[in-house]
Amino acid sequence: MLFQHVAIAGLAHIDAPKSLSSDEINERLRPTMDRLGIKVDVLGDIAGIKARRLWDGPMQASDAATLAGVKALADAGVDPSRIGVLINTSVSRDYLEPSTASIVSGNLGLGDTCQNFDVANACLAFINGMDIAARMIERGEIEYALIVDGETADLAYENTINRLNAEGTTEEDFRNELATLTLGSGAAAMVMARAELVPGAPRYRGGVTRAATEWNKLCRGNLDRMVTDTRMLLIEGIKLAEKTFAAARQAMGWVAEELDQFVVHQVSQVHTKSFTAALGVDPRKVMTIFHEHGNIGPASVPIVLSKLREAGKLKKGDRVALMGIGSGLNCSMAEVVW
Description:
The protein is of the alpha/beta class. It has helices at 22-28, 30-36, 42-46, 61-76, 100-108, 125-138, 154-164, 171-177, 230-252, 269-279, 290-293, 300-310, and strands at residues 6-15, 18-21, 51-54, 83-88, 115-118, 144-151, 186-194, 203-211, 219-221, 226-228, 261-264, 319-326, 330-337. A hairpin with a 3-residue loop joins strand 12 and strand 13 (330-337). 49% of the residues are buried.
């Protein structure tokens, strides 16, 4: 769906403060790697992830999302009482119930007329949240929306390293769980608004989504473990991305050379190179943060967009492509006109 009346009024990100290097992880896994004869630094040399960010001490997903929400509201200059819907898109969560959104809403002191709910769709959820909010704004149901995401990978790291160092760990176990050690922690939030209320703000044009859910078994995870067929996930993910990009060309008139920035879900060096090559995207138009931040799940797209703005790399009129793939498989591509 394409929108005529939706804008981005505020945007913010929070970098988790603690850096954990791949060298440190490899050293902790040295007994298992030596026993299995693994000589290659898969995390650093192949995935290209030299470090990732973790929280310094206990941090719930709702706490991280709240920090980003406060910052985004301040950036937008919008009173919390005007928010019509809060959508939490975190993969990480405090509990199965209540929703993490309800906790964030309570933390922020949002009003009793503000709808709040979680949207879960792996690494694609933030873009899904933007789309849901945009539809509500376009129809005139609400004036302002707040989309938040807080990711906490700390528990997954400790449990995965302990499992991989267990005596019976096989090479297949090591390969299947290694992707967990590419994850990172962080948070992001965005305030979306009726465009007439924020003249001159970046406009959200909308986007397209395609699915290949026959591949839903390629990546399965819970809060402390993720098992991934990285090879097939890359192959089928790129096929789906090509199909989605073709849909974006038709729906939004996309031509790779005419888009100014590509905000791509950050997974790894291999994924990013394959993605840009398959779609004919100039790598110089892709800001990468996975080298030092890892894969921050659905927060990665808004974090990169926020960092682009922070670095002064977005100018008025720039066409910015938001691109995400989530295990399942689902793919969305959307456009923001800065």
